[in-house]
Automatic annotation (TrEMBL):
One GO BP annotation of this record: L-arginine biosynthetic process
Note: May also have succinyldiaminopimelate aminotransferase activity, thus carrying out the corresponding step in lysine biosynthesis.
Highest taxon of source: Archaea
GO cellular component terms attached to this protein's record: cytoplasm
Designated name of the protein: Acetylornithine aminotransferase
Signal peptide annotation: none
Cofactor binding summary note: Binds 1 pyridoxal phosphate per subunit.
Gene responsible for this protein: argD
Quaternary structure annotation from Swiss-Prot or TrEMBL: Homodimer.
């Protein structure tokens, strides 16, 4: 029997939902919909209902679902080589690293498979650098409301206690300060500090944008004290904000940059990128990843970056248009507390929990998300057009008009 047919046989929605409960560990509160295919800005469920996707797999499917250029090139790579080990050289890995170095203004890349891994790599690199160069005692300062992943080190780097509860003992050497507060950061720096890790635009925490003077101030402090500045751009990087990297809005550069989510266009890949001055502390045996930088993921990422390079102006335009339309809604409904973001990374803070709005939008055929309890999060594919924004906003208006407050 055809194996693909075997997988896609018996695809009754209720059976899939029931068997998910039975066979998958219960770590996600899923919405009751089984998605089966995607095309551009749309996805479709098993019943044939179409949804306009304004979350893009949490900022992963930036070039849209099943982008033809991506498929064409990934297919070609699938047919010649999927994986060998990092015991050997492969061409896509080197070409992708070169492209990332050029785009970021940094020098060297370590490839992994996810955001958490990219951050683990950054933490390890920073600590190794600190030890070698005599910078601090390995302590990494991170921001309140930040999010850096779910591995032990990255959930400890994530200040929110809910993520940490039950997983003690946690790794040592992390400390949290309020975001956008230079004085508090200054106070918390000591001779233990090796690095500062920041999302230039906090994603999971509710779409909070770093102030210009703040981020420049952090850069100055790091330069002054020789501390490493790590930017976690797992969510805000790769064109999401209208520039390839969010830090390019600030005229500064990090010492270490982490990427994942949108980087592979849907194929898992993470990257830890740094200046040569920092990168050189990694030597054979320092760090590793079996899958990291495999040819398939690297071709996918290379194609994705090429497509995103041509979308940046479009993202800026669509972001401004979307923001304007959401602000119009804000003037209509007093329960919309704030609309904030850059480019196509936008949050709308409500004065009540957003999960019912998300559900109602789903019923009407729109995928949006709510984070930090009351912030509607919009991360549409970067290929989104005005007509999609218009219908999304009209439908949101409809849902809001039924809200009783
Ligand atoms: C999603 C995310 C991560 C974790 O990425 P995973 O691929 O889920 O491990 C880390 N940092 C930020 C800013 C993220 O948004």
């Amino acid at each position: 029997m055809d194996i693909f047919n075997e997988i896609y046989r018996d695809i009754d929605e209720s059976v899939i939902i029931k068997e998910e409960k039975k066979y998958i560990m219960n770590t996600y509160g899923r919405l009751p919909v089984v998605l089966i295919r995607g095309n551009g800005v749309y996805v479709e469920d098993v019943k044939g209902k179409r949804y306009l996707d304004f979350i893009s797999g949490i900022g992963v499917n930036s070039i849209g679902h099943c982008n033809p250029k991506l498929i064409e090139n990934v297919k070609k790579q699938l047919e010649i080589l999927i994986h060998v080990s990092n015991l050997y050289y492969t061409i896509p890995q080197v070409k992708l690293a070169k492209k990332l170095a050029h785009l970021s203004g940094l020098d060297k890349v370590f490839f992994s498979n996810s955001g958490a891994e990219a951050n683990e790599g950054a933490i390890k690199l920073a600590r190794k650098y600190g030890k070698k160069m005599g910078v601090g005692e390995g302590e990494i300062i991170t921001m309140e409301r930040g999010f850096h992943g779910r591995t032990l080190a990255t959930l400890t780097a994530t200040s929110k206690v809910e993520y940490q509860k039950g997983f003690e003992p946690l790794p040592k050497g992390f400390k949290y300060v309020p975001f956008n507060d230079l004085d508090k950061l200054m106070e918390s720096i000591s001779n233990k500090t090796t690095g500062i890790m920041i999302e230039p635009i906090q994603g999971e925490g509710g779409i909070h944008v770093a102030d210009k003077e703040y981020l420049k101030g952090v850069r100055d402090i790091c330069d002054d004290k020789g501390i490493l500045l790590i930017f976690d751009e797992v969510q805000c990087g790769i064109g999401r904000t209208g520039k390839m990297f969010a830090y390019q809005h600030y005229d500064i550069k990090p010492d270490i940059l982490t990427l994942a989510k949108a980087l592979g266009g849907g194929i898992p890949i993470g990257a830890t990128i740094s200046k040569e001055e920092v990168a050189h502390v990694f030597t054979p045996g320092s760090h590793g990843s079996t899958f990291g930088g495999n040819p398939l993921a690297c071709v996918s990422a290379y194609v994705t970056l090429s497509i995103v390079e041509d979308l940046l102006t479009h993202v800026e335009e669509m972001g401004e248009y979307f923001m304007r339309k959401l602000r119009n809604l804000q003037s209509k409904y007093s329960f919309i507390k704030e609309v904030r973001g850059i480019g196509l990374m936008i949050g709308m803070e409500l004065s009540f929990q957003g999960k019912d709005v998300v559900k109602k939008m789903l019923e009407k055929g729109y995928l949006i998300n709510c984070t930090a309890e009351n912030v509607l999060r919009f991360l549409p594919p970067l290929i989104v057009e005005k007509e999609h924004i218009d219908v999304l906003v009209d439908t949101l208006d409809e849902v809001f008009s039924e809200v009783e407050v």
